[in-house]
Amino acid sequence: AAGHEQHMAIVGAHGMVGGCGAFFDGRHSVTAIASSDVVARPVAHQVLLAQMTQDSQCLRQVLWLANAKLRVLATQNLLLSQASATQRVAHHLLQLAATYGRAADGGTVIGIAFTHQEMANITGLSRVMVSNVLIQLQEQGLTDKANAHCVIRDIEGLRRRATGV
Fold first, then answer.
1. CA angle 70–86–163, rounded 5-degree value
2. Long-range contacts of 40-46 (CB under 8 A, 24+ apart)
3. How many Cα atoms occupy the beta-carbon half-sphere of 57 within 13 Å?
């Protein structure tokens, strides 16, 4: 209502947004905004419900996507309520590496670029705090920058930081 943007999740290929409206009244409490180029196909909620009834593979895909979103939101809730700034940033870097990472000389390059503000939005931190954490992780040899992309140099060390060890 105030016009603020909040990154809730990176949906990825073959993902679905607005699926909650299909199971209730078709109304949505949020608007999805793409941070990169996407191909979107609107599906009326009655059409989706009919397709799920007729096609078990479609039903499994919708359930899988809903479960994945639920896991992301549960994790996000836990991070926002209990994790330090470093844990939040490290966790999201690990998620990005798992989803978009590719092996590179001496580490894992996250294949999508992101700004400090985008990381701040998804972690619930200020941009300044995210910048400070990223600098600390780089000084500790856990991450690096290559062009506009983050490189994970020590994935096990980053996992330890994500868990607070």
1. 60
2. 45/21
3. 0
Which phi and psi (to 5°) does residue 149 adopt?
A: -110, 150
Measured in degrees and rounded to the nearest 5, phi and psi for residue 118 equal -65, -40
CA dihedral 34, 98, 93, 88 (to 10 degrees): 100
The DSSP line for 74-122 is HHHHHHHHH--HHHHHHHHHHHHHHHHEEEETTEEEESS---HHHHHHH
Structure-block tokens of residue 158: 């980053």
| pLDDT tens digits, one per residue of 123-148 | 989 999 999 999 999 999 999 998 88
Rounded Cα–Cα distance for residues 155 and 161 (Å) = 10
Q: Residues 65, 52: contact at Cβ < 8 Å? A: no
| Residue 82: HSE in the Cβ half-sphere, 13 Å Cα cutoff | 8
Tens-place pLDDT, residues 12-70 = 666 666 666 666 665 666 566 676 777 777 777 788 889 999 999 989 988 888 888 78
Distance from C-alpha of 142 to C-alpha of 110, rounded to nearest angstrom: 13
Q: Identify the residue whose tokens are 């990825």.
A: 12
In the three-class reduction of DSSP (H, G, I as helix; E, B as strand; rest coil), residue 67 is classed as helix
